[in-house]
Amino acid sequence: MAWLSEAHRASPRLRAAFLLLVFGYTWQVEAQVPTVSVTSLSFADKDLDAGQIGGPLTWQPPGSTATVTHYDVYLATDAAGSGQSAVSLNVAVGTNEATVADNTAKSSYTHILVYTANANGPQASPTALALADSAATVSSVAFQDLDLDNLDVGGDVTWTPPADVTNVAEYTVYLSKDAAGSSRSQVGTNGIVVGTNVFAIPPDTMRLPYRQVNVYTTSTFSEQTTPGSATIRDSIAMVTSISFTDQDLDLFEVGGYVQWTVSGSTSLVSTYQVYIAMTSTGTGQIQVGDVPVGTNRLLIGPDYVLGDYSFLLVYTSSSLVVSTGNAAIGFFDSEALVDTIGFTDLDLDAAELGGTLTWTEPMDTMQVTFYNAYLAVEIDGVNRSQIEAAVPVDTAERSVPADTQQVLSAGLAQFFVVYTRSALTEQTTPAGLAIADEARTVSSISFTDYDLDEGDFGGTITWDPEADVSLVENYAVYMAEDESGSAKSHVGSDVTVGTNHIDLPADATEASYTALCVFTKSSLAEQTTPRAFNLSDTVSQVPAINFTDQDVDAAQFGGTMEWDAPDDETYLTHYVVYVATDVTGTGGIALSGDLPTTTRNLFVPPDQSLPYLSVYTKSALAEQTTPTSLAMSDSTSAVSSLVFTDQDLDAGDLGGTVSFVPEGDTSLVQHYAVFLSPDQSGGYGKSQVGEDITDSTEVPMLADTELGNFTHVVIYARSSFFEQTTPDFVVISDASATISSLDFADKDLDDSELGGVATWSPPSSSNAQVTHYVVYLAEDTTLGMSSRSQLGSDVPVGTDQSIVPENTEIQNSTHMLVYTRSSFVEQTTPAELLIYDASSTVGSLSFVDKDLDESEVGGRVTWQEQGDVATVTHYLMSLAGSDMGANRSQIGPAIPVGSDSGMIPADSGTSPLFTHLVVFARSSLHEQTTPAWIRFTDADIVSSVSSVNFTDQDLDFAELGGNISWQPPDDVSQLAGYLVYLAGSADGAGRSQIESQVDAGSDFVLIPPETAQENFSFAAVYTRSALFEQTTPVAVSLSDSFTVPSNVLLTDEDLDGSQIGGPLSWTAALPESGGSLPHPLVTKYAIYFSPDPSGGPSCSLVAEVAETGSLQHEALLPLGTSLGSFTHVLVYAVSELVMQTTPAATLISDTASSVGNLLFVDQDLDALELGGQIDWEAPADVSRLSGYNIELAADSSGAQPSQLVAAGINVTQVLLPDSTSSTNFSHIVVYTVSALGRQTIPVALEFNDSIASVTRVSFVDLDLDDLELGGTVFWNPPGPTEEVHLVKSYVVYLAESGAGLNGSQLASATLGTNQLFVPADSPLLPEQSHLVVYTRSALFEQSTPSSLELNDTDVNSFNVTFVDMDLDDLEVGGVVTWTEPFDTRLVTRYNVYLAGADAGSNRSQVGGGIGYALVGSSALDLF
Q1: Cβ–Cβ contacts within 10 Å for residue 1073, how many?
Q2: pLDDT grade for 1413, boundaries at 50, 70 and 90
Q3: If pLDDT is split at 50, 70 and 90, which confidence band does 35 have?
């Protein structure tokens, strides 16, 4: 049957007919087909992909091929030929091989078969060979790009070889668009031998449009179709911004740091290579250095001679190769020299300089950081010495300090020289100025000393001025140690020129001064070499003083003093006498005015406290400062050990004895007097204690003496001459000893009686004067001792309480008083406490018998607490025979205070003897005697419910739920509620309570849903009073209801992963007995998401659908419904009561269809604008895909979208136009769209708004004609934070505004070139006001340029005159003159021509090309 066509073999009818045919003619077929077989069948799979086979098949022919005309080769699912598929048919005898094509799917085939055959068909039993699939794919493919140029790659591809390389002949490496090898391109031309697992991709290999590197194994038969793969990560590290500023300020030399920034990762950069070249593209470049990665600058020079080189270039270099992309910058040679140096010497000493050195700064100070000023022997700066520190740029002067020496080590400085200095180095050729020195000095100083102290001077200093005072502004006068002014001290303030004297104030101390010096002083400084005068000191001092003290107070003096005249009285005019604190006269107080020189004594009044007498001499100028002094000897008489202890314990009252001990000289003392004083000095307001004391050493102070404002006890000694002025004293310590925290709680609960313990805290301060405490009851604190009554005896100190016996009568007392007592007296002001009489009982006593049994009581007794319960500790409850508690029997334990009820237990028996219920209050001291009471009676009530009913509304099997209802009893007077149980029988056996007690006003209770029925057959209802439960219930039998929906089906139309949406259908829940209508108790269906098919607490409600009476139901789940961790949709039947717990379930099949590998690079180089190609990969599953929406959004979730374009199903890239606004957007998002709607969670790419603008555009028009330009446009490339790697070129325009209005392109420059030469005579339209520079990417030119407002240079000389002095015909000679332009900063020279017209046509430069004049000249001689 192997030779039948596929169509015939697939037809069951034809196959049956054929089998009948075979069976009918077996003997004939077997006689005609071959019976011989091939041998040595051999096949090695040379297709190296898993699941695919391919390669040569060989065999040995049969021993005899007489009946064989050809061979047929098949793949089959077993050795017998089942499920066979043709490989090669009609292979001619003589050919003993066939080829299995590469990429043949192995599928379920296990054998390869070779049939011998002839015209009658194949042999019956083929030769079979079991298949072995050979798979050999490399793994762990890795590639690191070491080519640092954008869109170029280079580096080693590595891989791990297959475990079995038996059939691998070589490896081949390709670049492709994806891991499957789409649109591939082979790298190199030769295969890679087995055993080599690395391949070098050459540098500068173009990456685009490839994204993957693929490694294929190749056998001798074919190359595999499924390679090993690695994603290409294009390493980009290019120098994008280079800067160099010439800091060598000499012409034709440069020096400074070349610096650069890099775009991209530097992880693969090993070094930076720095070159100089003739052009920005590297013509004639030579390397000047390299630095390791991490260092982004290199020092060139200083004094580096450029020669023909005008550009700097910097390249990145990896371990593999130097990048081909560079950044370049042109050199700009800096030159800076100061001008117009000026200096006036204001140091008035010879060979010394001082003043301000000034100069004019260079026109260009951009690279100047400092100026260095020097003194130099030569004008070129040889043998120079720097003046102070460097001067910062923008400061055109240097202060030359006064006393700067003009003489240097190499000779006399003849010049000032000023050098400019950059941040790198100082220039070598300075500007200079010749020095002019100035000197000024006074003469003829005179002085007379009128200060009478030794070593002090005072008087008037005069002098004669110098002849030339033109630079002198002031004179400064000093006292000094020598004539040169050493250790000088300024006399007064400077005097202005024209004033030739100054006063030296008295008391100018001589110290070591021997001379007076006068210095001239300019506006800058004082001279250092003065005119001097030698000093002579005048001395006039009293030699001695005599004095005897006649005042007996300690430290007080009085009496008569005398003194002797000085040796030198030449300048003496008066004496002045003082008392003072020390021998130098410090703190002196005058005892006299000026005394004539003939006076030699003075009376000193008593009570003088200062211990020294001082006599000063005085001249016409001043009183001397150092007197002659005498220390006075003091006469004293006093007391010691003055003592007073207050024994009156009331605050503000004093009492006790004052004692003292006399000391010193008492011969002058007649008696002593003691006072209370407001201070220690015994001043105003003192009050005497007792009488004067003549023959005793103590005086008593009566108790209750008021302290008032007195603070001290003072004592005076009195002589026959006068009373002491300074008493001895002792500070008063007012003894105050009053208890605090007096407390008493009445524990006797009867009215008008007290009982308990009074407690207090002792006086706060330790007072040894307290001996006892005394406790009283008093009618009123204001009535004194007449109204008080002592409680018990005095309480010794150390005991802080007193017991008040119970039943102590209060009578008229209102307060409790506690006094302290000393050995001297009892205090008069006690501590006091208002008495509070405690009285407490209960009220509103109530009791209702809740025990429904006869002759038994039970229930709760209630009352209200009344009065002050602070001292109540318990209540006692009893049954009694009277309202006073006769024959009482206590019920239960004592009840703590704060309770307002007590319980009589159910089933408590009663007795005819008990007629009352009584309650006593009790304190910690004793029990109340008169209780609260009520009478009580017994009750006998019986009640039961009727008409109990129950319908199960829980739809789960063996679970109950629903209301049990009943009719209440006829008599509900004592009914407190109902108790309902599930029970095994109608009498309540084996019962289990349902919920808690039901209120008496209710007639139903809910059996909670999902209550397990277990073995319960009945629901039983009991009545209950407030105290107990009925024993015989009323019951109803239970019947379980159960049902569940079926055939749940969900179709997910939502294309988001982890989200679903679409139609959900199911069949309604049916009754337990079956039928075609829904279950009558089902009111609706609840739809949930669940992590499993059984449901549970982790489920989430999706929707609810009402029961409509139809067998089939459907709900639409909205798109974007989050799936979370849910795996199933559950459908529950819901009754009026509850949702069932056993749902119908279906497994969720989540349709996920999102794009992959979203790519976008912004090629619009303007801020807040986008442009470029958006690429993505189609989803793996496109079965429900109808297209894509591409949008800009505010975040990755697609917030605040702005749709860009809708694309069809076969589109995977769109072009975003340039200048697309990115304001308020941060992401590009791509949604897949189905027929039902778009997905809710897009694939998002946070875009980077590429910004690359040049900065610091500069241009100086060197074409001196109006409306013509010429020069070089410079700019700084985009900064290190911008995407300079996207810049391909710069485009320069002339425009009518800074925004580029009506731009006219001048030219463009490649990336790395940051300047553009504008040829001279380039035309400029009048309306063109700006130069603008745009960056351009591979796709777009930016729309917002960097700009520079143009300044068209128009410089013309004028007033040109020429008088021909050559008298020959057709010959001229003479001087051409002109007026220079106002601004010559850009003019380097003037060229003079002879021309055919005033516009310069047909001109010829005079002098054979040398007819020119340098700027600064205004004439040229043509002779």
Answers
A1: 6
A2: low
A3: very high
Phi, psi for residue 634 in degrees, rounded to 5: -90, 140
HSE-up of 60 (CA within 13 Å, CB side)?
5
Q: How far is CA 711 from the centre of its chain?
A: 63
3-class secondary structure, 1399: coil
Supply 1331's token pair: 């130069």
1162, 1202, 1160, 1212: which is closest to 1182 by C-alpha? 1212
The alpha carbons of the chain give a radius of gyration, in whole angstroms, of 63
Rounded to whole angstroms, how far apart are CA atoms 744 and 749?
Answer: 14
DSSP-derived pairing of the beta strands 1330-1336 and 1289-1295: antiparallel
Give every strand in the sheet of 1213-1221, ordered side by side.
1156-1160, 1169-1177, 1213-1221
For residues 451 and 718, give the distance between their C-alpha atoms in angstroms, rounded to a whole number: 48
Q: d(Cα 801, Cα 792) in Å, to the nearest integer?
A: 12
CA distance 189 to 43: 30
**What's the average model confidence in pLDDT over 644-649?**
82
Helix (H, G, I), strand (E, B) or coil at 45: coil
The Cα 209–Cα 1159 span in angstroms is 13
pLDDT in tens, 499-546: 999 999 888 787 788 899 999 999 888 898 899 999 888 889 999 999
Q: Are strands 740-744 and 795-796 parallel, antiparallel or unpaired?
A: unpaired
Helix (H) or strand (E) holding 861: strand 856-867
Tell whether the model's pLDDT for residue 1355 goes beyond 70.
yes
Residue whose pair of structure tokens reads 């003897």 in the numeric block:
913
pTM for the predicted model, two decimal places: 0.39
Could you tell me which residues are beta bridge partners of residue 262? 239
* Peptide linkage before 202 cis (omega within 30 of 0): no
Query: Could you tell me the two tokens for 475?
Result: 């004179």
The residue-averaged pLDDT of 11-29 equals 33
β 52-60/97-105 pair status: antiparallel
Helix (H, G, I), strand (E, B) or coil at 221: coil
What's the first-to-final CA gap in the chain, in angstroms? 124
Q: For 62, which DSSP code?
A: P
pLDDT of residue 19: 31
Distances, alpha carbon 9 to alpha carbons 21, 35, 105, 428, in Å: 15, 23, 21, 105
Strand order through the sheet with 1346-1349: 1304-1310, 1289-1295, 1330-1336, 1346-1349
Helices (H) and strands (E) in the chain, counts: 3, 107
Asked if 602 contacts 560 with a C-beta cutoff of 8 angstroms, the reply is yes
d(CA 293, CA 276): 20
The DSSP H or E segment spanning 782 is none
CA distance 235 to 250: 42
How far, in Å, are 540, 602, 630, 718, 1268 from residue 579 at the CA level? 20, 12, 9, 26, 99
Per the structure block, which two tokens stand in for 164?
């079995």
Distance CA 1090, CA 437 (A): 105
d(C-alpha 29, C-alpha 1), whole Å: 12
* CA separation for the pair 28, 21 (Å, rounded): 11
DSSP conformation letters of 1010-1058: EEE-TT--EEEEEEEESS-B-SS-EEEE--------EEEEE-----STT
DSSP state of 651: T
According to the model, what pLDDT value does residue 1411 have? 53
pLDDT given for residue 552 in this prediction? 65
- The predicted-structure confidence for 1338-1354, as pLDDT tens digits, reads as follows 889 999 999 999 988 77
E-assigned strand segments in 914-1045: 916-923, 932-935, 946-950, 959-967, 975-983, 992-993, 998-999, 1004-1012, 1018-1025, 1034-1037
Is pLDDT above 80 for 379? yes
- Euclidean distance between CA atoms 60 and 49, whole angstroms: 28
